[in-house]
């Protein structure tokens, strides 16, 4: 299940906060998969190119090319990003250092295990276009940010469900079986839709979805009430 709400940054940035529950996988494997930034084009359709240009301890300098579209406009964005990783806390923080079409961007990813073989990934991101956004279309930009985040989380969910199903078909072991290498192997070879995938959940999962939604609502500022409804 994927839950997303809209947010606004302290300087008016367009943002979103999302949570997805992943089953049949360990938290460390999920974190390693997301941290492998060069694999992003294989599972995130919005990323055309991603390359680590420098490593400094737990910090990576990354060059990415993203495809974008808004109304009738479309093109490529070239971004230079710093990605800070904390393998102990299972967090990843990314911040824009320079780029085209984007004045500011930052994101935060956190992964935690909620039960054996079950983990929760939380992702938050904020962005500010390089051009002024008229008041009349700001809600459209906010909606696009929410859809983008929902697409990323849905892609991750689809990827790990496919991996768990393949392991079950092979009669494999638990959530950590295969470790990081297996996670890396699943970083290629699957064409995934960017968004629109909506599974049918049993009653227990629906209760978990409600708890996630209540948690997100508690973190969202008062002006995102419409965003919560639109993102559901």
From TrEMBL:
<dbReference type="InterPro" id="IPR019587">
    <property type="entry name" value="Polyketide_cyclase/dehydratase"/>
</dbReference>
<protein>
    <recommendedName>
        <fullName>Coenzyme Q-binding protein COQ10 START domain-containing protein</fullName>
    </recommendedName>
</protein>
<dbReference type="Pfam" id="PF10604">
    <property type="entry name" value="Polyketide_cyc2"/>
</dbReference>
<dbReference type="InterPro" id="IPR023393">
    <property type="entry name" value="START-like_dom_sf"/>
</dbReference>
